[in-house]
Each structure stands twice: as structure tokens, then as C-alpha cells.
Amino acid sequence: MNPSTSLRLRLPALVLMLEVLLLVLYSIFVTYDDNADSKMQNNVTKPMDNSLYRDYPFFADVQVMIFIGFGCLLAFLRFYGFGGMVFNFLTATFTIQWAILVQGYFQFYHDGKIHLGVINLINAEFACAVILISFGAVLGKTSPVQLLVMAFLEVPVFSVTEWAVLKYLRINDAGGSILIHLFACYFGLGVTFALYRPNLKNGHVKEITSYHSDILSVLGTLFLWVFWPSFNSALTLKGDDQHRAVLHTFIGLSSSTMTAFALSAVFNKNGKITMADIQNVTLAGGVTVGASVDMMISPAAAYGLGILGCTACYLGYRYLTPFLAKHLRIQDQCGIHNLHGLTGLISCTAGICAILLATEEQYGPSMYEIFAHRSPPLGDPRLLELQQLIPGLKPGLGRSAQEQALYQVAAIFSTIGAAAAGGVLTGFILKLPFLASPPDDDCFDDELFFDVPSDFYSEVKKVPLNEHDSKV
């Protein structure tokens, strides 16, 4: 064991510090929300009206995406299956615990306490998805100590950015195209830019897949695919908005999947299907419909967005990822810029178009629920009229469609800027020597951090030193 990468002291010491910190903060600040607090139950409350029964199915679905979907998807490398799945498990578990505190401070903090309920867990899972997407850019080139530090730093940057954008820019982002996909992508690219390894610019001998690792990875794709409608619809308004979100996500995923198979075959020199395309490009439609997922865009538009997003994602893997690595010092291991960056930008553009085209004739009075910031401000007689049609409608800012669209654009650029800056700074911190960064020769190799079974060595011997077959 190389003493510079040994986890014997580093990992236990970091975990102990983090657990003590979390225990103290939970003891001081975290309590139950009204739906979990026994003192709030009486002969008027009905158990089946508890928010658990409304929110838990979405929580469970996103849990499957986080721990099984992402975990299996990241196990595509032949000699890094343990690292892909297990480091995903470790990072996700810590991130959700940490995000409950950090996000809770901005969203659920009052009376000196963070009031914990299932909705907090769902929000924390979305923060966790951000970190795991960013993780994809540095897969195989970081230690578990570095990944925990990365999560520890990224969660506050994400939470502050999310809070500032939602509080001051007041945007529509039901599927998280801006605040999840774009933020995660450009944070991850910032980290990998700072961690650039010149010796890996032409690839690595162990940066290859195998028959079994590809099967495991596509299993992760299937879990993500099946549960993506819950991811996109979990935080939308209940009722017709959530219904549309499920429909649009499924339609977008379906069209992107069909397109991915066609593109994979037509661009393959032997006219065959490439597993890397199926593992990644098929998911593009779920991202591309995100910004407009709850709007009245029509099923045909959702279908078209799936095709467009898939095409951009595929071409990004084929041409843009090698360009970034060669010319911009961005070694994007899992191609997150294609699946989350390019498709996120397309999604945001589609969302802006949907905002500009939205009319009360198309949506009815519910337009002011979906586009809450276009609702008339307090004191406007029009607000009273709308509240008679939609009881509980809250005052808005009275924005026009054009004004709201400009705020969406401002959110895109501010989110990308904050994410990239935060990622670069985090990357430089991760270069500190005591964080057990793996040497270039030991990247993409489970043996560095795991006790591996005996058949692992027999697999290594099958790989000639000059063999290289990059996923991308």
C-alpha cells in the first residue's frame, strides 16, 4: 500500500469529523415538521392526510435513482466497478445528511430550528443528484476522501446559488434544468479542469469496459429511465401540472431512446450498436423536457425535445468531449457536459420559449399558478378576481412574459458562473496532498482502495499494456 494513498487514517479521521459535526448540528437545529410531530396530532387530524402518503412515493423513486441508478451507471469501467458503485454509495449517503442541514437552513428554518419532513429528504436527494452528476466528471481519478470533501464543499455552493436564484430572480425550473443539471455539469467541469492530468490526455490503459461492466451500467440506465418521471415531477404543483410532467418526461425519454439506437448504428463504422450510447444518450430526453415539463407545451413538443436533446448529446460525446480534453484541459470522464450541459441548455431555451408563448387563453386562470411571478401583485383588483377562481392563489410580481424570460436567461448565466467558479476552487482544494489523490498509473483501478477478489488479478492479466478503449 502506497502511504500517500492509504485510507487507514485519512478516511476514518474525515468520517469521524463529519459525523461529529453532523451529530452536533442535528442536535441543535433539527426537529420534526408538523406532519411528523406527535404534539400536532389531535382528534381533528386524519392520519391518511399526512404528507407522508403524498410525498413518500416520490422520495422512494428518487432513492432508487440515486443509489441504484447512478451507482450501476457509474460501474461501466472494467477495473473500477467497486469504485463506481461504492463511492457513489458513500458520497450519496453523506450528501443527503449534509444537504438536509444546509438546504434546511435556507428553506425550512424558522423558530431557530430546521423542521424535518419527507419533503426535506426529497430536496436533499436533488442536491445529492447534483453532487453525483459532478462526480461523473472525475470518476476513477479521485479518492473517497476527495469525494467527501468535494460533496462537503459543493452542497453549500449549490444551496446558496439555489436560494439566491429562487429568491431574487424568481424563475420557473420544475425539472431542475438550471439549478440541477447546469449547476452540476459546470461545477464538475470546473473541478476536473483544476485536477487536469496531462499524463492522461491520451487515455489510460485501464480506461476500458467489459461485457459484464457494460451490462451492469445499462441496468443503471434502466433504473434511471423508469424513475425519471418521478424525478421531474416530484416538486411540481399537485394535479394537472404533475400529470403533465409525468407524461412529458416519459414521451421525451421514449423519443430520445429511439433516436439513440438509430444514431449509434448509423455512426458506427461497422453499423453496430455501441453500449456507451445506450447507457447515456437514451436518457437525454429526460433532461431536455425538464424546464418546460409542467407547462402546456404539447406531447408533440416533448417528443421533439427528446429527439433534439438526444442528437445534441450523441454529437457531444462523439466530437465535443475529445475537443474539451485536447484543447481546454477538461477531462470529462463520463461526458456530463453532453448529458446534462448541452441538453440542459436546450431545455432552458425550450422553457423560455414556452414562457413567451404562454397565454391565459391556453392555460386558463391556472397560468398564474404555474407562472407564479406573473400573477398580479398584492392590491391589484385583478388578483381578487383570480383568487375567486383559484382559492389560495398567492400574489405575484406582475411580470410580463418577456420580463420572466429575461430573468430565466439571467438565472442560466449566473448559475453557470457560480458553478464553474465554485468547481475550480474546489478542484484546487482537492489537490492538497493529504487527500489521497491516486497517482496517474493507479487511476481507474479498484485495487488501489479496495481488497479485491482473486479473479480481479486474472482479469488484469488479460489486458495488454497497449490496449486502450475509452468509453467516450
TrEMBL record:
Keyword Glycoprotein recorded: yes
GO terms of biological process kind: ammonium homeostasis
Gene Ontology cellular component list: plasma membrane
TM region positions: 12-32, 58-80, 86-106, 118-139, 145-166, 178-196, 216-235, 247-267, 300-320, 341-359, 405-430
Family annotation (SUPFAM superfamilies): Ammonium transporter
Keywords: Ammonia transport, Cell membrane, Glycoprotein, Membrane, Transmembrane, Transmembrane helix, Transport
Cell compartment(s), UniProt: Cell membrane
Membrane topology designation: Multi-pass membrane protein
Domain of life: Eukaryota
Residue span(s) of domain Ammonium transporter AmtB-like: 24-433
Predominant location: membrane
Pfam families assigned to the protein according to its UniProt record, in alphabetical order: Ammonium_transp
GO MF annotations, alphabetized: ammonium channel activity
Protein family membership: Belongs to the ammonium transporter (TC 2.A.49) family. Rh subfamily.
Known function: Functions as an ammonia transporter. May play a role in the elimination of ammonia in the gill.
Name assigned to this protein: Ammonium transporter Rh type B
Organism: Merluccius polli (Benguela hake)
Gene: rhbg_0
